[in-house]
Specification:
There is one protein chain. By secondary structure, the protein is mainly α. Helix content is 63%, strand content 0%. Helix 2 crosses helix 3, helix 8 runs antiparallel to helix 11 and helix 9 runs antiparallel to helix 10. The longest helix has 17 residues.
């Protein structure tokens, strides 16, 4: 006669496993936030990520929505001024919108993105209009970023197909596709048109250099 041992996975025998899952779920529930905990979260976030005051405020508001606020000694929900907390961190230098805007504008330009993409990125991060204008790429920087993107994407004189004759219809479609790609990356139409019409990469280099000379910029590129 075969002995039938209780199977832990059989109905009615999984209460131990279920209770274990319940206990683990309860452990994951974090307590409501007090002012000190919220300040620690803000400091930790600012230390880990380059951010702006607006993005930090949005992060803290989200954390409050997720966890709620603690009660004071009288059982009343704490009233924490998130804007004042963020302003204090800005005052202490933990958050610097100007430094963030400068870094992001430089990074995007180095990756081949144009002025419009820089503007959109900074606006989305909550950078105010004055700082967005202050860090907007100039003509020389815009031309350089457009040339960099064309080189990376092998567009215009940087493309292999440029040296070989092709079907006119295929050439026109390829040009329209290239212009659309450059416009999506935030470049001016005039910049895209010049690069795609250039016969030599040297022509693009001279074009970028002319703008740098006009602005009195050293050819750091």
């Amino acid at each position: 006669m075969v002995s039938r041992k209780a199977n832990s996975s059989s109905p009615g025998s999984g209460s131990g496993e279920d209770s274990g899952l319940t206990r683990r779920s309860e452990k994951r529930v974090k307590p409501p936030l007090g002012e000190a905990q919220l300040r620690d979260l803000a400091l930790h976030y600012a230390a880990r990520f380059a951010t702006t005051g607006a993005r930090l405020e949005a992060y803290l508001v989200r954390k409050i929505r997720e966890r709620g606020l603690a009660e004071d000694g009288d059982g009343r929900i704490l009233d924490i001024d998130v804007k004042a907390l963020v302003a204090r961190l800005v005052e202490l230098g933990y958050v610097d919108d100007d430094a963030y805007a400068r870094m992001r504008a430089r990074d995007l330009g180095a990756r081949g993105y144009g002025a419009r993409r820089v503007e959109e990125t900074l606006r989305h991060a909550g950078v105010d209009e004055g700082l967005r204008q202050a860090h907007a790429p100039g003509e020389a920087a815009g031309r350089h970023a457009a040339a960099l993107m064309a080189r990376k994407r092998r567009l215009g004189p940087y493309g292999r197909e440029h040296a070989e004759p092709s079907d006119p219809l295929a050439v026109r479609k390829a040009r329209e596709k290239a212009i659309a790609a450059m416009l999506r990356a935030g470049h001016q139409y005039e910049h895209a048109r010049f690069i795609l019409a250039a016969q030599r990469t040297e022509d693009v280099d001279e074009w970028v250099g002319e703008a740098a000379d006009d602005e009195g910029i050293e050819h750091q590129w």
